[in-house]
Amino acid sequence: MTPSAPLVYWFRSDLRLRDNPAWVQACALNQPLLAAVFEPHMASTEQRWGSLRPGPHRLAWWHANVRALQLELARHGVTLLVLRGNVVEVLQTVANKVGATAIHCEEIAAPYERAEVQALRNAGFQLHTQWSSTLFVEQELPFAVDELPAVFSQFRNLVERAHTPVPTPLEAPQRVCGFSVPSEIAAAFAPWAAIPPAEQLSVDIRSAFVWGEDTGSAVRAGNEGALAYLDAYFSSNRAAQYKATRNGLIGMAYSSKWSPWLAVGSVSAREIFDALRTYEQRQGANDGSYWLWFELLWREYFRWLHKQYGEALYRGRGLSEATRPVVAIKHQRAFAHWTQGRTGCELVDAGMRELAESGYSSNRMRQILASYWIYDLGGDWRAGAAWFEANLLDYDVYSNQGNWLYIAGLGTDPRGGRKFNVAKQAADHDADGQYRNLWSASP
Ligand SMILES: Cc1cc2nc3c(=O)[nH]c(=O)nc-3n(C[C@H](O)[C@H](O)[C@H](O)COP(=O)(O)OP(=O)(O)OC[C@H]3O[C@@H](n4cnc5c(N)ncnc54)[C@H](O)[C@@H]3O)c2cc1C
């Protein structure tokens, strides 16, 4: 490496400078840093589900968060290259031009993301990966990751009884050594040319997650946007009411809506936990605040589950012993009906329309949609997971895979899958039909 050769910092699902262990580690080396990020592409690119692409809402939210990160990096004199295409080929081209040989990034314990890292190693890069997205530190868990409890409630009981510590969020490094990107590289990988302005996408005001200036909403992307949102959230009574409202279907208020920032990593789970504990110290803990912690533990559980089982979670049979045929071909028509919201089941069709037209879906609807695909239409759960991957603006590899497996009954839970009775769900959660009316057709 020449003396001026930079290290590459590759932002993955960690679009933030605060509380980012991998970024802190890279900055501590005090060498010039070249920052890069790749536009989202489908991990489940298997053609058997059709050629799915990340949808407009997922892309728009991601771009808005990247733009916020770019502005923060610029304050440190760091240029962020926004790249597209094959990670190995593109990084090789960039690295060759600047003489970089080392790449720092977040560790992601999912097969496609692991394969990317391995391919970069095979191409001759030194890769330094750092686990960055959980509340807990592996060494502090009250069990070895290989012995993660098979049932979520056992996991929760163990970490609660052990008072497993959640580290205080790390400050963003003040000293960052920026690399001045040669103009021909900056031009070749024009950082912002590829990014459509957020205004090009009009956020559907029926959405349960309304964001961006053009909508009149105060909700903004990026770490600063997330922290402002958390401030407003905990200044309201929404946390206290969370347990009672969390199964709602319409509007911003029924659940926390933290997932969009968490998914791209523009806020860390520890920053959220910190805000939650501060709220509890100020207002006192209540059912709602406990339940938010409970839900963050679900997110946590699926992350450690990936560490334990990795690729096995991506098999058609998941962790079960049974062999399952691939059913996607047989169900192609059903897949088209389900994805287009034309199954004939009003609640499901409304839910599928909401997902495609807003990029968001409540937890209750996600469960109903997944159950309907698996049990009523007999579809392959991985096709459903791929559709969610393409469309959810809060797509998170661990939570998506973990929840689909859970509903399909192919994860660790010994109680089997979760089939939802749609008529009962409609009666319990949309008795007056307001939700079905809202999403009955395009606006
Ligand atoms: C089939 C299916 C697919 C899903 N795919 C995703 C996904 O791609 N990305 C994603 O972030 N969540 C996913 N979830 C989990 C859950 O639906 C969302 O996290 C939640 O609806 C996000 O809204 P919120 O932030 O208002 O959540 P809240 O209800 O306010 O919960 C607070 C936080 O707890 C975590 N959380 C809550 N429920 C779950 C859960 N069941 N599993 C894991 N974490 C949870 C999230 O980080 C969430 O932001 C999926 C659920 C199902 C049933």
Q: Would you summarize the structure shown here?
A:
By secondary structure, the protein is an alpha/beta fold. The protein contains 18 helices and 5 strands. The termini are far apart.
Entry keywords:
binds flavin-adenine dinucleotide, 443 residues, 6% strand, DNA Cyclobutane Dipyrimidine Photolyase, subunit A, domain 3, 46% helix, alpha/beta, 5 strands, single chain
Q: How do the helices and strands line up, and which of them pair or pack?
A:
Elements: E1 7-11, H1 21-28, E2 33-38, H2 56-75, E3 80-83, H3 87-98, E4 102-107, H4 111-122, E5 126-131, H5 152-161, H6 183-188, H7 222-235, H8 238-245, H9 259-264, H10 269-283, H11 287-309, H12 332-339, H13 346-358, H14 363-376, H15 381-391, H16 397-408, H17 422-429, H18 434-438
Helix pairs in contact: 7-10, 8-11, 10-11, 11-16, 14-16, 15-16
The structure holds flavin-adenine dinucleotide (FAD).
CATH superfamily membership of the domain at 312-437: DNA Cyclobutane Dipyrimidine Photolyase, subunit A, domain 3
CATH class of the domain at 312-437: Mainly Alpha
Q: Whole-number radius of gyration?
A: 22 Å
Helix-and-strand structural type = alpha/beta
What CATH calls the topology of the domain at 312-437 is DNA Cyclobutane Dipyrimidine Photolyase, subunit A, domain 3
What are the distinct ligands in this entry?
flavin-adenine dinucleotide
Low-confidence stretches: none
